[in-house]
Amino acid sequence: MVDEATKLSLAKIPLLKTKAGPRDGELWISRLKEEYQALIKYVQNNKEADNDWFRLESNKEGTRWFGKCWYIHELLKYEFDVEFDIPVTYPTTSPEIALPELDGKTAKMYRGGKICLTDHFKPLWARNVPKFGIAHAMALGLGPWLAVEIPDLIQRGVVTHQEKTDSGAAASR
């Protein structure tokens, strides 16, 4: 299921130890620290590999995450808002990552722009509780989804490059 490059990237993301969710008080604070450390390491690794593709931040409680992700296709950057909430049953339940602006544009998406991860990612997540966290969800969930879906959406004309649209509108005036 996972190619060698992904395995190597994944091996560099620290595994988490604390099994705690948002309702677990001080344990959640410990888990959140581990989450941030893993995310920081994953972003650093991506930058070193010239594969920087997302930015995330959270609310103060670490229960709501939001940011940007992007995909480079034929030297053009396609950028999307990304968001998700941490489920109360986290880390037993993985987060449902959403790209709201793509809602309804692909069959591999649920209402609200939540990307479909049921077939491949969720069983893998379940086998790795509590070791996997947000960085792993990005690496094994959103990253592969973008790599498969975005080129298809571009090819079908469902997603267009923003600068093309802007310059096209300016040229037609």
Ends distance: 49 Å
Can you tell me the residue ranges where pLDDT is under 50 for at least 5 consecutive residues? Answer: 164-173
How are helices and strands ordered from N to C? HHEEEEEHHH
State the secondary-structure class: alpha+beta
Helix count, DSSP H or I runs of 4 or more residues: 5
CATH level-3 fold name: Ubiquitin Conjugating Enzyme
Radius of gyration: 17 Å
* Tally of distinct domains: 1
| Overall 3D form | globular
Share in β-strands:
15-25%
Overall CATH architecture: Roll
Please state how the strands of the largest beta sheet are arranged side by side: 1-2-3
Q: Going by CATH, what is the homologous superfamily? A: Ubiquitin Conjugating Enzyme
- Helix proportion of residues, in percent? 40-55%
CATH top level assignment: Alpha Beta
What is the number of beta strands?
A: 5
Mean pLDDT, to the nearest integer, reads 90
Main beta-sheet annotation? 3 strands, antiparallel
InterPro entries: UBQ-conjugating_enzyme/RWD, Ufc1
Protein name: Ubiquitin-fold modifier-conjugating enzyme 1
Family: Belongs to the ubiquitin-conjugating enzyme family. UFC1 subfamily.
GO molecular function: UFM1 conjugating enzyme activity
Name a few traits of the molecule:
three-stranded antiparallel sheet, disordered C terminus, Ufc1, two-stranded antiparallel sheet, Ubiquitin Conjugating Enzyme
Task: Describe the protein in words.
With 173 residues, the protein is α+β, with helices and mostly antiparallel strands. The protein has one domain (4-171): Roll (Ubiquitin Conjugating Enzyme), CATH 3.10.110. It contains 5 helices and 5 strands. The strands form 2 sheets. It has a 3-stranded antiparallel sheet, with helices on one face. The chain has a two-stranded antiparallel sheet with strand order 4-5. β2 (64-73) and β3 form a beta hairpin. The longest helix has 23 residues, at 26-48. It is globular and about 45 Å long. 27% of the residues are buried. E2-like enzyme which forms an intermediate with UFM1 via a thioester linkage. The active site is at residue 116. Keywords: Ubl conjugation pathway. Belongs to the ubiquitin-conjugating enzyme family. UFC1 subfamily. This is Ubiquitin-fold modifier-conjugating enzyme 1.
